[in-house]
Amino acid sequence: xxxxxxxxxxxxxxxxxxxxxxxxxxxxxxxxxxxxxxxxxxxxxxxxxxxxxxxxxxxxxxxxxxxxxxxxxxxxxxxxxxxxxxxxxxxxxxxxxxxxxxxxxxxxxxxxxxxxxxxxxxxxxxxxxxxxxxxxxxxxxxxxxxxxxxxxxxxxxxxxxxxxxxxxxxxxxxxxxxxxxxxxxxxxxxxxxxxxxxxxxxxxxxxxxxxxxxxxxxxxxxxxxxxxxxxxxxxxxxxxxxxxxxxxxxxxxxxxxxxxxxxxxxxxxxxxxxxxxxxxxxxxx
Length: 285
Description:
It is a single chain. Helix content is about 50%, strand content about 15%. By secondary structure, it is α/β, with parallel strands linked by helices. The protein has 2 domains: about 1-200; about 200-280, no CATH class. The chain has a 6-stranded mixed beta sheet, with helices on both faces. A two-stranded antiparallel sheet has the order 2-3. α8 (about 230-245) packs across α9. The longest helix has 28 residues, at about 200-230. The two termini are about 20 Å apart.
């Protein structure tokens, strides 16, 4: 229990659980979107926070950090990403397809699809060009000025940008998400909300319960794999885990779950060399 307590006390707004809780306040979420996109929004409504979507046509489900729309029926999905998993561009493509499926009822016209912004707030530079914001929309390769007009936008924000390419408000927000202090009024408000959240015993219990549930599910899957004898590599992973100590793997599991690196966790469970790389990456060894 103690590691979980320490984890709760040390997390900041870049933690997706805490981000989802704090951004349940419409005024904060609206202001954040206005700063990111440089627009004015009259009001927003929550389609669902931490919304879990699992389509019948695809068994793979996704859990959204924040999913809202404004008074102009523009939909926004905001995600926190603290680790470069290498799949964010394609994940944004998948999110877009699933959100589009959610918007239309059977027989409804495609023209009724809302304008959509999928926003990843990353604590790293995904494209390594030094920009604070990378915005993508579909355009013609032969005629660069010709836009497709599908109203699907994908933004990748970078807390580690070095260019002078964003507003003072957005720079302050990204600095804060990257763990750097700021005297900006909105940042002071966010810091206050984070401090209040840390005192919320119900949220703390929920956070720890989710962590323990995720870890139990991982352990259950590993045990079932052993019983069925489906993966020899998993057996080897268990033997090595016992030699190195269960505490090492437990810490790695917590870190990977925190960063939502589920594929890396699965691969690290069965691939000993890859697991060693993960240990080194998180400085656990």
